[in-house]
Amino acid sequence: LERRARISLTGMRKIIAERLAESLGPIPHFYLNIEIDADPLMRLRAELKSAGEEDDATKITVNDFILKSTVMAAMREPKVNASFDEDAIVQYGDINLGFAVALEEGLVTPVIRAAQNKSLREISAAVKDLAHRARNKRMKPEEFQGGTLTVSNLGSYGIDYFSAVINPPQAIILSIGAIVRQAVVNEAGAIVPGHRMKIGMSCDHRVVDG
Fold first, then answer.
1. Residue range 115-144: average pLDDT?
2. Choice among 17-21, 79-83, 104-108, 141-145 with the minimum mean pLDDT
């Protein structure tokens, strides 16, 4: 059975929900944006490549690291792994991680179920399997359903930054931009080459406060 907790709204939460919905539509979005140092990620990825132990079928991609990191962050902040349900906020016991896959006819979001129980390599294998079957129209309907949060990565398309639209009934979606090599200022105050990546989070204001 799926684990979840139903938390009744306080009077304040009811008022916040009603007013924001009236102001901004069915899901009142707000957006958080951050630029991070991607050098540690790139170094780790390079170490894996230089080890020479991976082939195309088993290699860990940058996106795999991002998905695993998203799961770890959601475990630390379980309030984002939730949805709004009229008079309550539903917090989910499992992190069912959706990830956007581009098809010619549009976007689909396969779901990695109970991702908090999966290792980096297990997440990587699940992504490869689900994305391959999605592109070949061999997925079961339930494999698109039940996501509790979603990651949309457009970095491979050269997109530096974007704001994603929440996938109802989820409360957040992450938008991942390209890793860009550029000059940065290090802790010593010197200008050095580095890697930067912009991450956006779109949030349902009824669940996650601005």
1. 93
2. 17-21
Give me the percent of the chain exceeding a pLDDT of 70.
Answer: 94
Q: How far apart are the first and last CA of the chain?
A: 33
Clarify whether 205 is annotated catalytic: yes
Burial pattern 110-139, b for ≥16 Cβ within 10 A else e, equals: bbbbebeebeeeebbbbbbebbeebeeeeb
Question: For 28-78, what is each residue's pLDDT tens digit?
Answer: 999 999 999 999 999 988 888 777 655 665 789 999 999 999 999 999 999
For residues 98 and 59, give the distance between their C-alpha atoms in angstroms, rounded to a whole number.
20
Q: Which of 29, 132, 195, 205 is catalytic?
A: 205
User: Regarding beta strands 106-108 and 82-85, do their DSSP bridges make them parallel or antiparallel, or are they unpaired?
Assistant: unpaired
pLDDT at 10: 83
> How far is 89 from 83, CA to CA, in rounded Å?
6
The span from the CA of 100 to the CA of 149, in Å, is 11
Strands (E), the chain: 4-8, 29-37, 82-85, 88-92, 97-99, 101-103, 106-108, 111-112, 149-153, 172-185, 191-204
Residue 170 CA, chain-centre distance (Å), reads 11
